[in-house]
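Problem 3 from the worked examples.
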Amino acid sequence: SFYLSDSRPWPWAYRAMAPPPGPLRDCSPRGESCARTLCAALADTGLKPEVLHVVGASEAELSMDFEALSQVLPPGARIVLIGPHAMGAERGACAPREEKLVGPFKCRGLQVSVFPHTYQRFLTVCHTAETPQLAVLFHPGLDIHYFAWYLCLKLWADSRTPVLITAYRRPENTGETPQVVKTLLETLVGVGSGAGMWVIEEENPHTIEEGSFNAAYFVTLGCQGALPVLAEEMYFALYQALLKLGYPFAPRVGYLDVGSESELVMATNPRLMAAVAEGAVRAAKVGEDGCDEETAAEFAMCVLDSVMGNGAGIAWRASDYTRSACKNCGDGYDDLAWHRTICPAMGLLELNTGDEVRLANLTRQEFNGREGVLGEFNSAKQRWVVNMGGRDALFKAANLEKMPAKK
């Protein structure tokens, strides 16, 4: 099959093609690797999705071989490329781009749209968008951005949306290697009985850059059991599973994808240490068996030492750096504008205790239009408390419309 050939050019590579429309780019080696990997995964699963969400999209996804994809997808299939870097937002940007769906653009018989923002904002802003029949994440960094990705993974697992995820193998065999990604996914969603891990391809024939880019791919479908609401509730299971591989699980809390690459990875970066420590502390304190603050801090020090070297934990405790915390969801952040892109308490507009709101976008139409007043944001449930006529109920931020202030 054309999508399983790794050594020969594809037949259409020689055709004269019109330039891709809108923000889409000419096919690049990375874009071709992504397209071939996606085609292979579709062949493995037999899926023919009419709606695909490619999440965390950037240059590689914008430059995919859409002609190749048109050969395996239904005519007119809708592809939405979603990600803050999908239209040029670079690291260090002071704020994400406008929350607007761009397109669709007709490309090789497909309908391709771009949403240059996070998936969390896409779900809120584009609430009428079609439900994906396949979600695609090319080397998303689940290990370090676990807290930011978790609610997306839970959403797809709960709705049994198939998810394609690839791995990235660095020359020193660090980072989100195939074994790390496989273990992380198996721990989260399980294996067997028609749910959890569906496809495991630890040696992707369509990898490039000496086997690093798209080194492996995996497809998940649902979950063996319901995932808990909070990411920290799965932290220790992941920590222990990856520890067996000799891999230090130390995900960051918050959107830390701003600033220079060298600054982000520096062991002495106080922002990075605080973001990692916050995740460990939350994991240690969560649930009925959670420990006290001091014990949680000691665990965070161990995590920091394991990933940044001996002394990192002590350096964190000695640092006078204090993260700002969201007044609603409680998460720490380094940049408020970027935090709002993933904050579960954000509606279409910023919501705060005391705001008058109207219910909207609910499946049960009879509730839409009802009005109430916001209480506190319930972090444990990831929902707002809404008082309606003396009774409290919980609703997601995406189902709340902020009403204009009364004059």
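Problem 4, a separate protein:
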Amino acid sequence: VGWGYQKHLLYGIPNSSWKSPQWNWGSAMGTGHDCAAICRRRWSLRDNRSALVQLLLDGGRAEEDVSFEELKLILGLAWQKGRWDGSDGG
């Protein structure tokens, strides 16, 4: 599925880059929160997550379906979850 990403724009949401003052990572307000909700829905199924990881391991072109910005968001959310639930060992 091509999402028609623009550079540093997630899910077509204005001001949705990590550098945007409206991003507010970790807050319940802001474009970071809005993008995180979309990301969680998009990757909620294990099969979808497994297919993404396999694509990346196989050297596939993830940008056809997922931008580098989205990959950063996925990683950030995984780290955040690990910190909250203790699964990161910290």
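Solution to problem 4. Confidence is low (pLDDT under 50) at residues 1-6. The longest helix spans residues 68-85.
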